[in-house]
Amino acid sequence: MKINKKIIKELSDYLDEFNLTELEYTDKDTKIKVSKNSVQISNQSPSSNTPLDQILKDKEDSILDKPGIKVTSPIIGTAYHAPEPGAKKFVEIGKKIKKGDTVMIVEAMKTMNHVPSSADGVVKEVCVEDGQPVEFGQTIIILE
């Protein structure tokens, strides 16, 4: 069984976006249930015939198609824009940053992990909200 992590990630994002506690997706022999406490998968086989699949593909393509240098999350966790609530954000759109500068913190298992920029550039877009869950390899900012 091959697991499509992108679908799970998108469903997880919908939990926060629509303030849900649980979401279930079923298509033929595929059933994915995502809740704020757990993720369950059984017999996943991606299909592109449903509206949800098209929404997920469009959102994924919109970030992948954007030009620029993408800085990605090195781990799964919760992204924070500042070192503490109310503090100045690490990056903002239009700010010049250098390779190695902290762009965000990703909290995983009560450990705050600073995410360094992978290149010099100007912040073009911040792709995640403060406090939003992120996945390994998810684009968190885009540089010009």
Word description of this protein:
By secondary structure, the chain is an alpha+beta fold. It has two domains: 5-64, no CATH class; 69-143, Beta Barrel (OB fold (Dihydrolipoamide Acetyltransferase, E2P)). The protein has two helices and eleven strands. The strands form three sheets. The chain has a four-stranded antiparallel β-sheet, with no helix packed on it. A four-stranded antiparallel β-sheet has the order 8-7-5-10. A three-stranded antiparallel β-sheet has the order 1-2-3, covered by helices on one side. It is globular. The mean pLDDT is 79.
β-sheet strand percentage: 35-45%
Give the biggest beta sheet. Answer: 4 strands, antiparallel
The residue-averaged pLDDT reads: 79
Distance between the termini: 39 Å
List the helices and strands and how they pair.
Blueprint: H1 5-17, E1 22-27, E2 30-35, E3 39-42, H2 51-64, E4 69-72, E5 77-80, E6 96-97, E7 102-108, E8 111-116, E9 121-126, E10 133-134, E11 139-143
Short description:
The protein contains two helices and eleven strands, in the order αβββαββββββββ. The protein is α+β, with helices and mostly antiparallel strands and 144 residues long.
Essential attributes:
single chain; 144 residues; alpha+beta; OB fold (Dihydrolipoamide Acetyltransferase, E2P); 2 domains; 4-stranded antiparallel sheet; globular
